[in-house]
Each structure stands twice: as C-alpha cells, then as structure tokens.
Design a protein that fits this description.
alpha/beta; Alpha/beta knot; Trp Operon Repressor, Chain A; 2 domains; five-stranded parallel β-sheet; three-stranded mixed β-sheet; 10 strands; elongated; binds adenine
Amino acid sequence: MKIDIITIFPEIAEAPLRSSIMGRAVESGVVEFGFHNLRDFTSDKHRQVDDIPYGGGPGMVMKPEPFFEAVESLRTDESKVLLMTPQGSPFVQAKAVELAVVPHLIILCGHYEGVDHRVVEALVDEEISIGDYVLTNGTLAAAVIADAVVRLIPGVLGDERSSEEESFSGDGSRIEAPHYTRPAEFRGREVPPVLLSGHHAEIEKWRLQMSEQRTKENRPDLLD
Ligand code: ADE
C-alpha cells in the first residue's frame, strides 16, 4: 500500500509515521509513505497556498491550484483521494477496515478556514473527520487515519488476533474488557480471580460481561 500525504506541515505527519510499528511497517515494505509539501506544487515566487475568502469572513481559504497540481501528479487508477476536514464524515473502525485494502491513498490536509470547495467537488472521493472538535490543521488527522489503516494490513501487528478482538471490531458495538498483567496484587488491588483460573470458557464469559458493563459506563451511545 502507498499513502501520500499532502500538507504544508509534512513534519507533523512524518514523526509519528516513521516511529514504532509504522516505522517497522515501512522497513518491511508493506507500506510506503510519501510526505509532500503543498508549497512544492505552487508556481508563484511566494509559494502561496491560501487567499482571502470570496464573500468575506474571517481567516484564509486554501487555494485550489496547488491541490490540483499535487493530486494530478500523484494519482493513478488505483488511488482514492481523502480530505481531512472537521466537516467530513466521522472516521470509525469500519472505515479503517475499508481503506486498508485500497492500494493507494492520497490524503489532503486542510489548514486555515478551509479548502476551496472546487477541490472537494473535482478531486476528493471522501471527506473525513476524526472527531467533533477542530484541530489547527488536518495533518495530525491524516497521521491518525494512516496509523489506524496500516495496522490492519496483515503482518503489521505481531499477533493478528490483536486487531480482531479489539474494541470496535466485529459489529463495532462493544468496547473491550479490561486487561491485567503481573503482579497479581498491586497496592491492595487484586486481578479478578477468574483470569488466574485457567478456565477459558469462564474467562470468555467474564470478558463479555465486562465488555457490556464498560460499554454502558463509557460508551452508552454504542448500545442505542
Ligand atoms: N482538521 C481540523 N480538524 C479536523 C478533524 N476533527 N478531523 C479531520 N481534519 C481536521
């Protein structure tokens, strides 16, 4: 899989995607990241990427031309073009699963008040938001999407079960049961005895119950 990220701050996406499991995924060749500076796709002396909004209003709007240049130079028949924006559809695990089989993702990152809407109309396949809050720019969001997608590619996580049994996988309606490791007692708090029992069926039953309980407490919206 190839993921090209187009942004005025490539360094914001580079740091997390060159580290840890993402860094190893690159080394092993399952994914290739391209970090592109949007300013490299401008043709004026000032490398300008934004301008004042038509119709007035605060802030600046990102110009269409550099995005068109960038996408047209990177796009192939296998590409899907995403735009990171708080106005996009919410990013969820099912979307990560869907994107994990796309051979080439091009992720456009907005900044300032937004991106000229002709970019959305003509270039973008999907507008995606990582949550109902506003970041200073979409590059952090692009790194979040890339991480969530790449970890699902077979071979990226050491143990394949870790992505199958986690929160939001399956029908996405429950969060995971709590986890414990040694010591069995810590500052007066004991690990639930069932986890030490070796009874796999009982452990499974306990995990389902805990999943239900924690979903009620932390994510009642998932049960609606
Ligand atoms: N850019 C700014 N805020 C964002 C968000 N919540 N999701 C995606 N891109 C963004």
